[in-house]
Amino acid sequence: MPLDLQKIFGDAQQVDEKYLKSLLGALERENLEGFDYLEFKQAVQNLLAMDMEPATALKSAFATAQTMGLTKDKLLQSAEHYIAVLMGEEKKVKEAASRKLRERMSDASKKKAQLENAIKAAKERMAALKAELQQLEKDLEKHSAELSSLTQKGEGEKQKIAEREAAFLKASAHIKEVIAADIEQIRKAL
Fold first, then answer.
1. How far is CA 64 from CA 57, 108, 141, in A?
2. Tens digit of each residue's pLDDT (9 = 90 or more) over 45-92
3. How far is CA 33 from the centre of its chain?
4. Which of 37, 85, 123, 173 is deepest in the core (most CB within 10 A)?
5. Prediction pTM value
């Protein structure tokens, strides 16, 4: 029976569907050969869908898995493998978010410095050329408004990136909690 990771882990409420699919894709790409935690989890889910008690479902699925060479150690090791896969995905997302933030902040800093220099030049010119004072004051206001807008935009981008990262981490935390709970149940039941 083909794996249906969406069915196994997709019952999370308030988890961003895009990030959930991304994480499930990573689990699928890193799926170990043979009967392991993912196949075991699906077997348990199928038994639970038939209104079987959780402990009985775990034991029944494990008994069947043992006929295919699965041991408790292999089961736990494969579950840990999938936790490591998720942690690797978290690391990639954190690095990408950090890189994107640095790039955007660097661009903003350059633009800010340019605008600050333009303001300084405008002030110096005002002192030297009183006849052009009115025009220079307009330039100063324009650059100040751009600087303020740029600062607000940078904060908005920073918040968006933080929200995306938080949504991803929430999705990853959900899956890790499910796996951790399964590991605990496996340790207790088997």
1. 11, 59, 75
2. 999 999 999 999 999 999 999 999 999 999 999 999 999 999 999 999
3. 26
4. 37
5. 0.61
